[in-house]
Amino acid sequence: KAHKLFQHALALDPNHADALNEYGEFIEATDQDLVKAEHLYTCALLLEPTHNRALVNRKRTHPLVEEIDQGNFMRIDRKRDELFRIPDNNAALRRAKMEMYYQHIYHTNAIEGNTLTLAQTRAILETGIAVSGKSIMEHNEVLGLDAAMKFINSSLVHRIGSITVQDILDIHHRVLGNVDPLEAGRFRRTQVFVGSHVPAPPDQVEDLVSDFSEWLNSEDNQELHPIEFAALVHYKLVYIHPFIDGNGRTSRLLMNLILMQAGFPPVTIKHELRHEYYEYLEKANQGDLRPFIRFIARCTEKTLDEYLWTSRETQVVSLRHNNRHYNDGKTIIVEEN
């Protein structure tokens, strides 16, 4: 009941610093959720920087939350290292990579409203045959993402610290090339509106992307964890919103480029999470980017879990062709033809 009362109060006035701080204190005391409580203290301070109680509360909880975040990064790193130890010629891993490739294209398009199913997306890429009842634009969105991902894999993955403005335009050109050839690979020339966010006017876009590219390649980012860096890359580009269309897809591709350069597989943001995804982007617009970074970290870990599970599952299934006992040190598998 108390949760509902706090939520109702904040629905009536989302910018009430006292309500935000007191809700944080309630969550910290009752739910022991330091991460959410510290976020609420931060939101209160963004509205009222001199709020005494929020200052005290955040000073107390911030180092503890930093420790939690770093612990999560370390756990994800261990899973990345476990995946890295699987040989590239492992048949199970190769199948997992192909399946995740199709899933990535399907989900990132579905977030933007594409209605092709995963099976239809796979069929288009494998056969090149059109799916009856679906628009040409939806087919071209699949082909565009496929072209952009192949371009990244072949040309950009190994160029660490040297991603140029032209590279960003080249990614966008492939994303949108078959959908809108006139706008593909070109900065927008009109004002756009993204919900409550109003991006910079078009005459500032080129300079903003140039500054973004300079920041992207700066040595200062070496101190950031790759997931944190990749999430910031995504957010900063989509905040600029340099294109008429394809900003989300281009930003997610650039994010994955950073992650792949750090040894992670391309991360899939599932379309079922689109509302959560946009909610965290909105929170970042309000001044606290850490919830969005944590969201990307969870998506990264989920992707790694799927790779590892698929590889292990396929390896176990492959044993069914033999009448033998297998002992992996933890369980004994008995298989019969």
Structure overview:
This protein has 337 residues and is an all-alpha fold. Helix content is 66%, strand content 2%. It is built from 13 helices and two strands. The chain has helices spanning 2-12, 17-30, 34-47, 52-84, 91-111, 118-127, 136-156, 165-176, 202-216, 226-240, 247-261, 274-285, 290-318, and strands at 325-327, 332-334. Strands 1-2 form a two-stranded antiparallel ribbon. Helix 4 (52-84) runs parallel beside helix 13 (290-318) and helix 12 (274-285) runs antiparallel to helix 13. The longest helix is centred in the first third of the chain and has 33 residues, at 52-84. The protein is globular and about 60 Å long. It starts with a helix and ends with a strand. Mean pLDDT is 90; it is low at 314-337.
Mean pLDDT comes to 90
Alpha-carbon distance between the two ends: 57 Å
* Helix content percent band: 55-70%
Q: Radius of gyration, Cα only, in angstroms?
A: 23 Å
The number of helices is 13
Structural class: mainly alpha
- Total beta strands: 2
Give, in spatial order, the strands making up the sheet with the most strands: 1-2
Taken from the alpha-carbon principal axes, the silhouette is globular
H/E series, N to C?
HHHHHHHHHHHHHEE
Beta-strand residue percentage: under 5%
Q: Biggest β-sheet, characterized?
A: 2 strands, antiparallel
Identify low-pLDDT runs.
Answer: 314-337
